[in-house]
Amino acid sequence: HQADSGYKSELVEKGLTQIVHKLLSRPTLRNHDKITRWCHRLVVNMVANCRDAQKSLYQVGGSQAVAQNQTVLQLVIKSVSRPGISADELQVCFSILGSCSLCPECVPCLLRSAIAPCTVRMLRGFADSKPPDAPKASAALHFLLKLSESKDGQQMAMKVPEALTIIAQTRSTFLNLGPLRYQCSLAMRNFAFCPEGKLNFINEVEPFEALFSDLEGTTSFAESCHCQAHAANALWAFVYNYQKGKTHLKKAEMLDRVKRVHRDMSTALEACSSHEYTASSAAATSMEMLRSTVRSLDAVLELSDQ
Question: What does the pLDDT look like over 281-296, one tens digit per residue?
Answer without folding.
Answer: 667 778 888 899 999 9
